[in-house]
C-alpha cells in the first residue's frame, strides 16, 4: 500500500510479501514444544478461527482456513446425533435432573463448569443401524 521499513529492510509499495507460516508454527521462541501436538496450549486463551487471532495463522485461519471446516462441523454434529440416538441416557444413582449444572466455561472449546456423569445404555431397537 505504501513504502515502509520492516526490521531494517526497505519495502517498496506494491511488493508481494510471503509469510512463512510453517516456520512461525515451529519457532521455539514463540511456542513451548512446537513440534508436539498440544491443542491444550490454547485452553484459557481467547482464540478465533475466523482470522482475528494470529496465533492460529500457522494452522490456517481467516480466509485461508480449511475449506472443509463448515462441512466438518455439520458432519461431526450429524454423526454425534446418530450415535446418541442409539443410546438411552440416564443419570448416575442418586442424581436428579435439578442437580445438573448448565453453566459453561468459555475458551477455545466450551466446557461445562461441572462435569456431568451419565450412564449410556444401548437401545434395543430393530431400526438402529
Automatic annotation (TrEMBL):
Tell me the InterPro entries matching this sequence: Cyt_P450, Cyt_P450_CS, Cyt_P450_E_grp-I, Cyt_P450_sf
UniProt-annotated location(s): Membrane
Is Heme found in the keyword set?
A: yes
Q: Identify the residues that bind heme.
A: 66
Q: Please tell me one Gene Ontology term that the record gives under cellular component.
A: membrane
PROSITE patterns hit by this protein: CYTOCHROME_P450
Task: Please list the cofactors this protein needs.
Answer: heme
Q: How does it sit in the membrane?
A: Single-pass membrane protein
Give UniProt keywords alphabetically: Heme, Iron, Metal-binding, Monooxygenase, Oxidoreductase
**Listed Pfam families:** p450 (PF00067)
Q: GO molecular function: any one? A: heme binding
Which PANTHER family does the record match to this protein? CYTOCHROME P450 71A1-LIKE, CYTOCHROME P450 98A9
Q: Which family does it belong to?
A: Belongs to the cytochrome P450 family.
Q: What is this protein called?
A: Trimethyltridecatetraene synthase
Amino acid at each position: 500500500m505504501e513504502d515502509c521499513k520492516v526490521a531494517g529492510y526497505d519495502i517498496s509499495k506494491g511488493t508481494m510479501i510471503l509469510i512463512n507460516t510453517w516456520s512461525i508454527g515451529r519457532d521455539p521462541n514463540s511456542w513451548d514444544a512446537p513440534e508436539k501436538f498440544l491443542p491444550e496450549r490454547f485452553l484459557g486463551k481467547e482464540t478465533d478461527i475466523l482470522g482475528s487471532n494470529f496465533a492460529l495463522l500457522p494452522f490456517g485461519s481467516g480466509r485461508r482456513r480449511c475449506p472443509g471446516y463448515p462441512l466438518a462441523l455439520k458432519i461431526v454434529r450429524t454423526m454425534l446425533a446418530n450415535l446418541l440416538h442409539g443410546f438411552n441416557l440416564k443419570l448416575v444413582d442418586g442424581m436428579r435432573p435439578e442437580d445438573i449444572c448448565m453453566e459453561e466455561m468459555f475458551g477455545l472449546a466450551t466446557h461445562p463448569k461441572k462435569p456431568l456423569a451419565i450412564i449410556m445404555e444401548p437401545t434395543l431397537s430393530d431400526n438402529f443401524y
